[in-house]
Design a protein that fits this description.
SAM-dependent_MTases_sf, Methyltransferase domain-containing protein, alpha/beta, disordered C terminus, single chain
Length: about 260
Amino acid sequence: MFVMAVSHPQPHVESPADHALLGWLLERAWAKLNRSAWWNSLGSEALDPAEYEASAANHELKFAKLEFNIRRAFHDAALAGLLSPRGPPLRVLDLGSGPGWFVWMLQELGHVAQGLEPMSSWTSPMKVRMSEVLGVAPIDHFVRARRQLPAPVGGRRYDVVTSWGTLFDLEAMHTGANADRSEWEICVRHRAEGMTDKRFWDIANWAFFLTDLACNQLVERGHVVLEVQVYDSFGRNARKWAEDAGVRVHRHFYTYIL
């Protein structure tokens, strides 16, 4: 099993072929979303290629922004080695898939992709509606410490498991504290400053999670591409354990707002 822990992935350098592929994906997304009266009712902001303002007024809109989400998913797919049309389609599980832009893109590229997202616990109408418009149906599940993931869909294991900038390793997200954004921000700040915070997973929890992926989710030569927010605070001990266990750790420096 190959695991790449990344934080803030650098932008994929597009070749002419990649540029053409990205343009095709943007056109496909536009054609699909333009058929939705609800999406069109969002107005010009949903077409703005910029990221978004980190304010309460605009926080939800990030789920609906076409070009921002397609470009982000494109860079993620490149990092995971999923852009190349060579070879048979791959089975991919995306943990914390959100509204499903990454899953939708992989399906357009010919892969068999499945998202996993705790939809029933979210109070985000925008996220739920975008998932419906994109036509992706995530498995409704919360990734928790020392709990196995649901069995692979159809009983067939995945070639690749991905997760992009999610915070499932923050236990406060599972105890009702996610409703209090101030506490969430404190946890993330502690992590960024390299402080020990017991609300994040310890080595034993990470070991259980990766063992579950290896034994129950992945094919023999499958791999994981895991983006951990604020990688430095993955922790020296956890990082050493990961490297000793054969995990290859890479760092990247392109920041996008989550």
